[in-house]
Predict the structure.
Amino acid sequence: MGHHHDHQVKNYNKAFAFGIALNIVFVLVEIGYGIAADSLALIADAGHNFSDVLSLILAWGASYLASRAATDKRTYGYRKATILASLANAILLLFALGAIAWEAIGRLWSPQPVQGWTVIWVAGIGVIINTVTALLFLSGQKEDLNIRGAFLHMAADAAISLGVALGGAIILWTGWLLVDPLLSLLIVLMILWATWSLLRESMNLAIDSVPNGTDLEGIRRFLKEQKGVLQLHDLHVWALSTSEVALSAHLVVEKECDCSDLLQKAQRELHDTFGIEHSTIQLEPSSNWECPLNGKTLL
């Protein structure tokens, strides 16, 4: 029986290249003005933006590897690289957050003067740049965790830059210098909240857990209810990449089972209803029947 898999990965090369170039320029500008204005909030945001540049580079590299063809040694290709990139991005962000929080806590006890207008203008530019970059990945963030990581980083940056600009305005209005380190800690908490789910999901995919959004109980019920199926065992569902889910299962079938019809229906419904891109189903005979397919795995 023929079985077709479409393993094409959408190309985001232009989006990654443009987003990385744009953010590198902004990081340099933000660091320069952050030092000039003595604003920890700006420097913290620049540090986070630089980690996002590294994250975009990682995501881009993984996206490129995922598009490469399978080989005799790597029969699944390099699609797992997208999961590793998502995990690396989450870990990288946690290290950046720790450094920012450490410096911010120190400034709570020794607040420094901040040039409010400089903070407002530079952060305002950041809102525009981060929003534009996030929109580059908007269309793919629902289907691909690797792309979602890039989208969430840039969308969070846009919101954070807006918060930094508001902080500069508050400093101008009230002269309260503690706004800068407090705002930095708020940035850390916001990013930590967004990063934690990315870290947890990436870790789960890296150890071949069932991907989020996959209805395992529904899959189990569907396979058991197929005509001719007596028993289901060794059901496994895991991620081939951040956008592709695989399944393997053993079905014990009765003597009268139409093997070809069963496999065609099962694999079609698994793909269309449950989003399983690659399914491997092995048919096994009941104890009183010798299967004409000899228990071979069909792809």
The CA atoms of residues 6 and 277 lie 8 Å apart. Helices lie at 13-37, 40-66, 81-109, 116-136, 145-174, 179-206, 216-224, 259-274.
